[in-house]
Design brief:
The complex is a heterodimer of chains A (297) and B (226). Chain A is α+β, with helices and mostly antiparallel strands and 297 residues long. In chain A, 44% of the residues lie in helices and 24% in strands. In chain A, the strands form two sheets. A five-stranded antiparallel β-sheet of chain A has the order 2-3-4-1-5. The C terminus of chain B is likely disordered. Classes of the chains: A alpha+beta (297), B alpha+beta (226).
Chain lengths: 297, 226
């Protein structure tokens, strides 16, 4: 019987109680529990067995587990999620995850990125490697389809903001009822002015919604021509995070676009035109690995 | 227009993708631990670029050695990066905090949020996503200040700092002669008391004086638009 020490003692004793003959318990138990998970970064379009270096989370060695013509890009870790209260630590992990995906992207040409903190464990008789290979085998066709869809493409974020005030003024210029209300407010005593202001704001709100719809459809059509696929994402409101909203810069469109790498310039040019239109501003981010276009199906 | 990535501002965009998206594994041979929420809401909000929302006033170290270090660090970092807060040569940050500025032009009055910077030369509000200075005044032009409580759109009373700003130099009104273009600015901040004290101190250091607060609150009542 070997010696055991440290955390595994209770578990070890339980194992011995099972009356299994010839059970040799060694420090191996402890060592394995540090390495029994495989942290998954992405699936790459390659059957190569490769080592990418100590570029993983916490400087772990990143390497591939191939199956035929696909491979999973991983590092060894405990089979527990990465968790921390320290936001600098989490930030570093997230950035590292992205960097590894980008390295694999560069090296293997096409990758299906995974979200942060996907870890594959082993089971009773199955090592994590086998689990991964079985999965790659089982989903081979689907994974290859996804890879074919995204080959040569990248994801870009497009956010369009509008100047709420500018648009409101445009509306007022063209809308007589609103103009009159605005005049009335200035001339009425405080109490009445409040009522008029309330009415004005409701009217403006309705007109703004119509405008938002109009512009959304217009920009969407223009952008669609330059991209392979679009996903409409939720717009982020500053108010989601606090009580001050910036009405001058309100996000009213948030898109993820899957674009052929050669056509990204075209998209950039169209966005430049939109950005130059008065009352609108564009935020253009990327190229990202296509996180938004590999999730389902 | 060129796309941007790998900057502080695009951390939000990365997080949106890396925390909520990516390939989903359904195969039942896999025992996956994905899908468990691992990042608390506050931490996530903090990471999502709105971390400035949670920043509090930071009194920079007044020690010359560490200020020099900070200058060196800034020089090395910037070199044309859009991320950098715009600073004048030799300018030093005394205090920074999240705040907002009352923008009263046009039909709407709105509070515009950003990061308030008090430097040894001026007070300004910077919006980093669009690299825009929303409000700016040299310290010499601040003539008076007063704190008032106002109800914001949530009906909660908030402390608003009124500033009477008198630009140096004047304009000429053909009928009246020289006219001084006073204006009243309004600011909010996560620690408005600290900001006010720091501004007062900087103005004193410059050998200037601030007028009686009462005058400004009177002025503010009469002249401020909304």
């Amino acid at each position: 019987m070997g010696k055991t020490k440290g955390k595994g003692v209770k578990e070890t004793l339980d194992m011995l109680d099972d009356n299994k003959p010839g059970v040799i318990v060694t420090n191996q138990v402890k060592a394995e529990s540090k390495d029994e998970g495989r942290y998954l970064y992405c699936v790459a379009d390659s059957g190569e067995k490769a080592h990418l270096g100590k570029i993983g989370l916490d400087d772990k060695e990143v390497y591939t587990i191939p199956y035929v013509n696909l491979c999973a890009v991983v590092h060894n870790c405990p089979s527990e999620p990465y968790k921390s209260e320290d936001r600098e630590v989490v930030k570093r992990w997230v950035i590292t995850h992205e960097k590894v995906v980008e390295v694999a992207w560069e090296k293997f040409g096409t990758v299906l990125p995974l979200g942060f903190d996907t870890i594959i464990k082993g089971e009773e008789n199955i090592s994590p490697e086998e689990n991964i290979k079985n999965w790659l085998k089982q989903d081979h066709v689907k994974l290859k389809e996804k890879i074919d869809k995204i080959r040569g493409k990248a994801e870009y974020g497009v956010q369009i903001f509008w100047d709420h005030k500018f648009i409101a003024e445009e509306i007022a210029k063209a809308n007589e009822e609103i103009r009159n209300l605005n005049q009335d407010i200035k001339s009425k005593p405080k109490g009445m002015a409040y009522m008029f202001r309330y009415k004005l704001e409701n009217l403006l709100k309705k007109e703004m919604e119509k405008k938002a719809d109009y512009y959304f459809k217009g920009f969407y059509a223009r952008i669609k021509k330059c991209v392979f696929e679009i996903r409409v994402e939720k717009t982020k409101k500053m108010s989601d995070f606090g009580s001050c909203g910036d009405e001058k810069r309100q996000m009213f469109m948030n898109l993820s676009c899957l674009v052929d790498k050669e056509k990204s310039r075209e998209l950039g040019e169209e966005l430049e035109k939109i950005n130059e239109e008065e009352g609108f501003a564009v935020r253009f981010t990327g190229p990202w690995p296509p996180y938004s276009f590999v999730a389902f199906g | 227009m060129e796309p941007v990535r790998n900057t502080n501002a695009t951390l939000v965009d990365l997080l949106d993708r890396i925390l909520d998206k990516g390939l989903v594994i359904y195969a039942d041979v896999i025992v996956s631990v994905a899908g468990i929420p691992l990042i608390g809401v506050n931490l996530r909000a903090a990471l999502a670029g709105m971390e400035t929302m949670l920043e509090y006033g930071v009194m920079m170290d007044r020690d010359e050695k560490s200020r020099a270090r900070e200058r060196e660090h800034r020089k090395k970092k910037s070199a044309g990066s859009r991320e950098e807060v715009p600073l004048i040569e030799g300018e030093e940050i005394i205090l920074k905090m999240l705040g907002s500025y009352r923008d009263t032009e046009g039909i709407y009055s709105t509070w515009r949020p950003g990061l308030l910077y008090l430097t040894d030369k001026r007070l300004y509000l910077y919006q980093k996503d669009f690299n825009e200075i929303l409000f700016q005044t040299p310290l010499e032009e601040i003539k008076a200040m007063a704190l008032k409580k106002e109800a914001d759109f949530t009906k909660e009373p908030v402390d608003v700092l009124y500033l009477l700003v008198r630009p140096q130099g004047t304009s000429k009104d053909p009928e009246v002669g020289e006219v001084v273009d006073n204006r009243v600015e309004r600011l909010r901040a996560v620690d408005i008391y600290r900001l006010k004290e720091a501004i007062e101190e900087r103005i004193k250091i410059k050998g200037l004086t601030l007028n009686d607060n009462l005058a400004v609150s009177e002025f503010g009542r009469r002249r401020a638009k909304r």
